[in-house]
Each structure stands twice: as structure tokens, then as C-alpha cells.
Amino acid sequence: MKNQKGVTLVELLIVILIMGVITTVAITLVSVSMKSEREVSSQNQIQREARLIMEFMTERMRDGAKWELVNANQFALKDGAKTHLTFTKLTGDKGKIVLGESGNTLSENVIFSLPDYNQNPVTVKLVIDNGNDRIELTSNIYYQRFRNN
């Protein structure tokens, strides 16, 4: 029995222990990465929603559309008879913004109030808050660029 090859039980147990530690660390890293990716994805989605709504709204407002009160819980961005956006309060300050006549909901987590058209520039503030993430955008719209002195 001079040339016995193989591993002892102690060596095998040490290898299994090392592999277990490495596997645990790898699983933890993957789990943390996936959680982080979900959070970033959620933030990016809210940011996309906010930018889309703000760009659409400010573009229409610069073309002359104005927000009009429809009823106590609803107002619409209109240009003559055409409705571009409708904001409807749902609960508290939050509401949803719907795209014109198509009725497609752009976001249901919007905090928005009618802008003051007596100011120049008119400041438009849009907040989207889904409970976990919040984004706030502000834009200034100049309806009267030059005043007669």
C-alpha cells in the first residue's frame, strides 16, 4: 500500500466548506445586483413618464394651449376645441394624466396644479410619486417674450 491516491475525508470536507462559502457570496452578490437593478429600473420608468408628459405639455403650451378647469376634480390642456391632456384627481393631491381623445393613461401617480397664467413666465410643476420613487420637474413658459414699454 505504498502508492495510494485519493483524498482524505478531512480534505473533502474542507473543499466542500470553501465551495459553500464561495457559493453563498456569489448568490448574495447576484441578489443585491438584481434588487438594485429593479430599483434603478423603477426610477428610470418614472423619469421617462415625467419627461414625456412634461415635454408634451410644455410643447403644447408654447403653441398656445392652456389649462382649463373642467370640474372640481378635473382640468384639461386645451387649444380651442382640441383637448391635448386631461388631469383627473384620484386621491388627495394625486391624480392621473390622460392623453387627449385617445384616452391613454400616461401616469396615475401625478401631483399637478393649475399654473398661474398671470405670471410671465408661467411656471409648470409636475411631480410623479409612486410611493417608493419621486421625481419633480419644473418648466418656465414665456407667453409674452417682449413687453411694450
Walk me through this protein's architecture.
β4 and β5 (104-112) form a beta hairpin. The protein starts with 8 loop residues before the first helix and ends in an 8-residue tail after the last strand. The chain is an alpha+beta fold. It has one helix at residues 9-62; strands at residues 66-71, 74-79, 82-91, 94-99, 104-112, 122-129, 134-141. A seven-stranded antiparallel beta sheet has the order 1-2-3-4-5-6-7, with helices on one face. Helix content is 36%, strand content 36%. The protein is rod-shaped and about 100 Å long. The longest helix is centred in the N-terminal third of the chain and has 54 residues, at 9-62. The chain is built from one helix and seven strands; from the N terminus they run αβββββββ.
Secondary-structure element series: HEEEEEEE
Structural class determined from secondary elements: alpha+beta
Extended strand count: 7
Q: What is the percent of helical residues?
A: 25-40%
- Give the termini separation: 111 Å
* Share of residues in strands: 35-45%
Q: If helices are DSSP runs of H or I spanning 4 or more residues, what is the number of helices?
A: 1
Using the alpha-carbon principal axes, give the shape: rod-shaped
Mean pLDDT: 88
Largest sheet: 7 strands, antiparallel
Taking pLDDT < 50 over at least 5 consecutive residues as the criterion, the unreliable ranges are: none
Reading side by side through the largest sheet, how are the strands ordered? 1-2-3-4-5-6-7
Radius of gyration from the alpha-carbon trace, in angstroms: 28 Å
